[in-house]
Amino acid sequence: MARNRKYRTAANRFGPALKAFLLCLLIGGSGVGYVWQKDQIRRLSQQIKERETRLNRLKDENVKRRQELARLRLPSSLDAQSKKWNLGLIQPQMSQVLRLTEPTREALASNRDPQYALEDSRLPKSP
């Protein structure tokens, strides 16, 4: 004999509604997650683009500053600045120029003993 509807258990009555709610929640959550992920990808790509343009701008500025530095280091430019500021600087005579040679790696490798200070003949010698 079939039972009447009012005798169904609570699980039988709310089960289909609960399943539908969970399914809607899963689909809605997946949709929100998809949209959030796409938004994050868009923001990151925008940040990458901004940083690449900034990097290119800084590279261009770096090249311009190197060129400016090279121009300012030219003897003619230095001479012009010296005259402009009335410094009275002139080119040194060749006899006034002292050229130092840099030691080679072999010479540095052969001189293994470190020389900390020159010995002063006026000081008493230690034992």
What does this structure look like?
The longest helix has about 60 residues, at about 10-70. About 60% of the residues lie in helices and about 0% in strands. It has helices at about 10-70, 75-85, 105-110. The model has no long low-confidence stretch (mean pLDDT about 85). The radius of gyration is 42 Å and the shape is elongated. It is an all-alpha fold.
Chain oligomer state: single chain
Low-confidence segments: none
Number of helical elements: 3
What series of H and E elements makes up the topology? HHH
Report how far the terminal alpha carbons are from each other: 121 Å
C-alpha-based Rg, rounded: 42 Å
Beta-strand segment tally: 0
Structural class call reads mainly alpha
Helix content: 55-70%
Strand content: under 5%
Instruction: Give the overall shape, derived from the CA principal axes.
Output: elongated
Which features characterize this protein?
127 residues, single chain, 3 helices, 62% helix, mainly alpha
Give the SSE layout.
Blueprint: H1 10-72, H2 75-84, H3 105-110
Structure at a glance:
By secondary structure, the chain is mostly helical. The chain has helices spanning about 10-70, 75-85, 105-110.
